[in-house]
Design brief:
13 strands; about 15% strand
Length: about 575
């Protein structure tokens, strides 16, 4: 294309070649698609008509800034209306080549008349509709073209720029961050908003590489993000932020759009990521007998949890904390900067919640959830403290994985990029401080509250805690099926004796509590606990704990496959 355009600027006779290019056809399904002259081609024709046959063409190998300056110089010297270009194209397509049939000539002439200098949105919509081959893509393209006209962008010269979109979202109702055909994802909603706001073309949604799209961190199903960053090349309108938010759902919001360098990649240039995990405080209780919503955590328990979480700090082999990687894969080594209990416990009704925060360079699939799962197993007495270090080896060992409900991406760090470009006078640093209050408000209303309500409704953590007894910690992975222990004569392994004993205590205590509650005495029994801060349990908690304990006992006596299907690990 560049060779052809270079010839157009130097010889009038090759204008017809450019016109013929617009008439090139290729089979699409059962029909024929006609290419439209792009903006570059129309600009070349305009410059030629304005400056004559002896005008020197711009060097296509020169830098983009110099090239645009040379083109602008030609545009200022003489201006040619879009009608002149249209006349050239129309006159060249009046007489179709003799080799064409009458029907083909009519199709070419019709497609050529649709080419104009201000038809970018409509042309892109037509191409996307033909390439996609389905009614959904055609409807989206037509809708985008209508929006572009309604917004008054027709004919506007808005160049694409590389930007960083800083956004937040609640992933409770989405199948993850990454686009997946047929499923509701965060990227799907973002691409639709970019298309409807005329910041991107319909073809961009089909091939995201056209936009140079990159996400800083991929979140799984149900995982939310407080400070997510994506890099993308879009049409940067003055009101681009308002346009995009207009078409985003309520649980997704863009807070800032910052112009970046052309080579910026939110994934490659992120130097750190911080995740948080929100869970009921009874998950850190010393035993399963205290795993009820009325439990209140004390300072001693928090200090012990921090000591266990600190064992992950540093560079370690996390092969057993992910899936789909080989034992000798060097990418299993990850750097953890900090891991601790964040802040004070938070009350939501009668439930107490606590937050864990981990900061690292990068994380693998399921890594954070398994790191937390191993700590909770130690806190419950299902294994010893040394088990955490023993599983950070290349030998396969099964590690429990907590539910994904409470996990959220809290922040992305770009320390290297901000240090190099944030103060060069041309670019802004990627900083969230200007929107701190707005982001915290969105986090509280749309993310944390949704996690707490779902946990209270489904009791996912309580159910998962009773599955900890199904693991044999420290044993090779090949002695299990689906990560669970191989039962021997239906007996519980001695390595999980402490965990099994506390589970039996839970069954006895909760059964007696439920019996007295149903007898009409109206008295609430206190939860068995050595802590003076324990709060009496309610009848609903006792009944729920009894049912969960019975499920766990039934699972321990079934086959490994049955246990895997009945557990929510």
């Amino acid at each position: 294309m560049s060779v052809l355009c270079r010839g157009v600027l130097s010889s009038k006779g090759l204008i017809n070649s450019l016109v013929r290019l617009s008439q090139c056809r290729r089979p699409v399904g059962n029909g024929v698609q006609t290419f439209a002259v792009g903006r570059l081609g129309r600009r070349c024709v305009s410059q030629f008509l304005a400056r004559g046959t002896h005008s020197s063409p711009p060097d296509f190998n020169m830098e983009p800034e110099a090239k645009r300056a040379k083109i602008s110089e030609g545009d200022q010297s003489s201006v040619v209306s879009s009608a002149s270009v249209q006349d050239v194209v129309s006159s060249s397509t009046t007489a179709a080549p003799a080799s064409m049939t009458a029907a083909e000539s009519t199709a070419v002439a019709t497609s050529s008349t649709e080419v104009s200098a201000d038809s970018t949105a409509t042309d892109s919509a037509a191409v996307a509709s033909a390439d996609s081959g389905n009614a959904a893509a055609a409807g989206t393209a037509a809708e985008a073209a209508a929006v572009a006209v309604a917004d008054g962008d027709k004919g506007a010269k808005i160049y694409r720029r590389k930007v960083a979109i800083m956004m937040s979202y609640c992933g409770a109702h989405y199948m993850g961050m990454q686009r997946n055909e047929g499923f509701k994802t965060i990227e799907r909603e973002l691409f639709n908003a970019l298309l409807k706001s005329n910041c991107s073309d319909p073809n961009d949604a089909i091939d995201v590489q056209r936009m140079q799209f990159q996400r800083a961190s991929r979140t799984d199903k149900g995982v939310s993000a407080v400070r997510q960053v994506v890099s993308v090349k879009i049409r940067l309108f003055d009101d681009a932020l308002e346009r995009i938010n207009k078409y985003l759902p309520e649980d997704i919001k863009a807070f800032s759009i910052i112009r970046t360098t052309n080579a910026f990649s939110s994934h490659k240039q992120a130097t750190g990521r911080a995740y948080e995990y929100v869970m009921p405080s009874f998950a850190l209780a010393p035993s399963l007998s205290k795993s009820v919503s009325a439990y209140r955590i004390d300072d001693e328990t928090i200090q012990r949890a921090n000591r266990l979480l600190a064992l992950y700090v540093g560079r370690h082999n996390f092969f057993n904390f992910t899936s789909g990687r080989k034992a000798d894969d060097v990418s299993c080594f990850r750097q953890i900067r900090s891991f601790e209990v964040k802040g004070e416990p938070v009350m939501d009704g009668k439930w107490e919640f606590i937050t864990l925060r981990v900061v690292g360079q990068s994380f693998m699939l399921h890594q954070i959830r398994k790191m937390i799962g191993m700590v909770l197993a130690v806190m419950k007495g299902c294994c010893v403290e040394e088990s955490i270090s023993s599983v950070m080896v290349p030998n396969p060992v099964a590690v429990p994985k907590v539910p994904g409900l409470g996990l959220l991406l809290d922040e992305i760090y770009f320390e290297g990029y901000n240090r190099e470009y944030g103060r060069d006078g041309k670019h802004q640093p990627l900083d969230w401080s200007a929107h701190k209050e707005e982001i915290e408000d969105f986090k509280r209303k749309h993310i944390v509250s949704a996690i707490m309500e779902e946990e209270k409704r489904t009791n996912q953590m309580m159910i998962w805690l009773h599955s900890l007894r199904l693991y044999e910690y420290g044993k090779p992975h090949d002695t299990r099926v689906h990560g669970y222990r191989m039962p021997e004569d239906g007996a519980v392994s001695s390595t999980a004796g402490t965990c099994a004993a506390t589970s039996s205590t839970t069954a006895t205590a909760t059964s007696s509590t439920a019996a007295e509650a149903t007898s009409g005495s109206g008295e609430q029994q206190a939860t068995p606990s050595t802590s003076t801060e324990a709060v009496p349990s309610t009848t609903d908690d006792a009944s729920a704990a009894t049912a969960l304990t019975q499920q766990a006992e039934a699972a321990s006596s079934t086959t490994p496959v049955e246990a895997a299907s009945s557990s929510t690990v």
